[in-house]
Every structure is written in structure tokens, then in C-alpha cells.
């Protein structure tokens, strides 16, 4: 006969030894993947792999082009970070970066202010509110080609309607798209025009989720309309506001047609943003490496800005 071990000797009859109990507890708490989850993973795997390949392959090719001195046809020699150094020391790059910053700030906050004001207006009882809301959506719904053509007709030449009106008011002859400063202002205003419906929709959805009893309680406590707006409305819609800022920042930085169709980046590169400069560098100057390097630098800036705004979303406490 075999002698019982010390563990078995110290364990009362009918009980599980301590070592086996610990192992059993671990096995009970250990997460198990069900057959349904495995099946779903296997079914989704081909789509996930395909999406990764579709997105990863262009990214890898672009990264390879950014460190070479080739063209759209010829791969070129490896130059390392030379393209990035050339871009960062180019006056054209910093001029485009400055305009991109102005264009983005004007587009984001200009469209947000207009959209917020119209969203608050649409919450009031005004006649024809539904039709008014549909009309306000037109700048966003109409294709950008049509909108840019209409704005070119309005301000493109000295005989256009708006320059003619300005001249009749005694303000002299104004060239909105020929003067560098006026062209930059015109492009920013045009961006606000085509973007405010998006901000209006985002803000309207956020305002619709606000409990109206909060305003009633604040009114009873003697809070004015301005105090209610600053201390109630803005904090309660802050999450949506930050999200809309992130999206609009991405839209503005990557916006090529709004600028190119209206001014082509001119006059004298006054309205040339980074995305326009990247397009010109690759497809007009046939310098693929520097052009792709500009695009990667844009992406890096967008990631930093989006991350900063996303952290603000996580810090928001509306309780």
C-alpha cells in the first residue's frame, strides 16, 4: 500500500485539498472564449485583414516614397529624411502652414459660431421653421463645384455683383480674388459658408438632448439668459462641441476642393494650404518625395490636435 501524502492526511474526509481548490478557483475565474465568439472572429477576420491591407499598403508605399527622390513614374534613390529637411526649411511650406492655420481656425470657429447661433434660433418658435431649416442645409448639400462656381460669379471679377455693389457704395474698386489678403479672407468666409450646416446639425442634436427642466430651475433661481447660456448650455453640449471641432479640424486641414476651385491657391500662393502645396509638389512639380513628406507632416499635426481635443472630451464632466 502507498502511504498518503501530508496534504491528504491533513485534509478532512469529503473536502477538497487546498491546492486543488486554488486550481479549481482559477479555472472557474479564467475567461473562456465561447464557440460563438470564435465563429464571429473567424467570420470577421477576412474583412479585417482586407481592410488592413487596403489601408496599410498605400501607407507603406507613401512612406517609402517620402524618403526617396523619385517621381510618379520613377522610384528614385533613397535619401532618408532629406525630403523632410528640405520641406521644413522651405519658405513655401511655412507660408502654406500659416495659411492652413488661419484657414482651419477661421473655418472651425467661424462655422461653429454661425451653426450655434442658428441652432439656438431654430429652437425658438419662428414661422416656417421647417422650411428655414431645409434652406440652411443647402450650402452643405450642394456640390462644392456648384458652390465655388457661384462664388466665383459673385466675387471673381470687378464686374461681379459684389464688387459692383462695393464700388457703388463709394468704397472703390475691390478685387476679392486678386488681392492676397482679400483672397485669404474670401476663402475663409467661403469655408464657413459651406461648413456651418454641419455644425448646426451637431449643435441642434446636442441641444435637443438637454433637459429643459434645468433651465426652468435656473430661471426660478434668478439666472439670466446669458448666465444660463454660459453655465448650462455650453457645458452640457461641450462633448458634442469638442467632437465637432475635431471633425471640422480634419475637414479644414484636408480641404482641397474648397481652396483649389475658388482661387487655385493664388494669388502668389496667398491661399495655398498644405494640401494644395502637396498636390502642386507631386502633380505639377513632379517631386513625389517632398509632396508625400508634406502629407505625412500634416497627418502628424492632425493626430496631435485630435488627441488633445479627445483628452478634453474625456475630462468633460456634465454631472
From TrEMBL:
- Keyword Signal among UniProt keywords: no
Mind listing the UniProt keywords for this protein, alphabetically?
Cell membrane, Membrane, Sugar transport, Transmembrane, Transmembrane helix, Transport
Please give the name of this protein: Multiple sugar transport system permease protein
Looking at the UniProt entry, the stretches that span the membrane are 37-57, 99-122, 134-154, 174-194, 242-262, 291-310
Q: Which family does the entry's similarity section mention? A: Belongs to the binding-protein-dependent transport system permease family.
Region of interest (Disordered), residue spans: 1-23
List where in the cell it is found: Cell membrane
Does the keyword Transmembrane belong to this entry? yes
GO CC aspect terms: plasma membrane
Q: Which CDD domains match?
A: TM_PBP2
What's the protein's topology in the membrane?
Answer: Multi-pass membrane protein
| Domain spans labelled ABC transmembrane type-1 | 97-309
Entry's Gene Ontology BP terms: transmembrane transport
Amino acid at each position: 500500500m502507498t502511504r498518503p501524502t501530508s496534504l491528504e492526511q491533513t485534509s478532512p474526509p469529503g473536502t477538497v485539498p487546498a491546492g486543488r481548490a486554488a486550481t479549481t478557483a482559477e479555472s472557474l475565474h479564467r475567461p473562456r472564449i465561447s464557440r460563438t465568439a470564435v465563429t464571429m472572429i473567424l467570420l470577421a477576420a477576412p474583412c479585417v485583414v482586407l481592410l488592413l491591407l487596403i489601408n496599410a499598403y498605400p501607407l507603406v508605399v507613401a512612406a517609402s516614397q517620402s524618403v526617396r527622390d523619385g517621381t510618379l513614374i520613377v522610384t528614385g534613390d533613397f535619401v532618408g529624411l532629406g525630403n523632410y529637411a528640405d520641406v521644413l526649411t522651405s519658405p513655401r511650406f511655412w507660408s502654406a502652414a500659416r495659411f492652413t492655420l488661419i484657414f482651419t481656425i477661421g473655418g472651425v470657429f467661424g462655422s461653429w459660431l454661425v451653426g450655434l447661433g442658428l441652432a439656438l434660433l431654430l429652437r425658438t418658435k419662428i414661422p416656417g421653421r421647417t422650411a428655414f431649416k431645409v434652406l440652411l442645409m443647402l450650402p452643405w448639400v450642394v456640390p462644392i463645384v456648384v458652390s465655388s462656381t457661384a462664388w466665383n460669379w459673385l466675387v471673381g471679377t470687378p464686374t461681379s455683383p459684389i464688387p459692383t455693389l462695393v464700388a457703388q457704395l463709394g468704397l472703390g474698386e475691390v478685387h476679392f480674388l486678386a488681392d492676397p489678403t482679400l483672397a485669404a479672407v474670401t476663402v475663409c468666409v467661403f469655408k464657413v459658408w459651406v461648413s456651418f450646416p454641419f455644425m448646426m446639425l451637431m449643435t441642434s442634436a446636442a441641444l435637443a438632448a438637454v433637459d429643459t427642466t434645468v433651465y426652468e430651475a435656473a430661471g426660478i433661481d434668478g439666472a439670466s439668459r446669458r448666465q444660463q447660456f454660459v453655465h448650462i448650455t455650453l457645458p452640457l453640449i461641450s462633448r458634442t462641441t469638442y467632437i465637432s471641432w475635431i471633425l471640422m479640424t480634419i475637414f479644414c486641414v484636408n480641404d482641397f476642393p474648397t481652396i483649389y476651385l475658388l482661387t487655385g491657391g493664388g494669388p502668389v500662393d496667398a491661399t495655398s494650404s498644405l494640401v494644395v502645396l502637396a498636390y502642386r509638389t507631386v502633380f505639377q512639380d513632379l517631386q513625389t518625395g517632398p509632396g508625400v513628406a508634406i502629407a505625412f507632416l500634416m497627418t502628424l499635426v492632425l493626430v496631435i490636435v485630435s488627441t488633445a481635443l479627445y483628452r478634453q472630451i474625456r475630462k468633460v464632466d456634465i454631472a
